[in-house]
What we know:
alpha+beta, 5 helices, 38% helix
Amino acid sequence: MPPRELVNPIRDLFDAAVRHYAVKLTCPRCRHQRIFDPHALWYHFHKRGRPDWLPDVREKCKCTSCGARRPTLDLVREPPTDETLPMPSEAVWKKELRRRR
């Protein structure tokens, strides 16, 4: 039987958050890295009405050190290193869970 990730691939930030994968962004120019909590990053895109598909997320991000665009995006099981984004309230998160079932 194939691993669950092959059967149901992670396509967007919401999928990453449900499966508890952190989002690691690495600058291609200066190698600066940040690891974001997937719930907070999803909420950041959700509030602004932006699509949260992983390729779209990569297009919208830029390095805070050198300003380079399109960082490398990896899903990791590491603790977040960036706490600047607010977390969604429990009501908002549960509403989105119900909507996507």
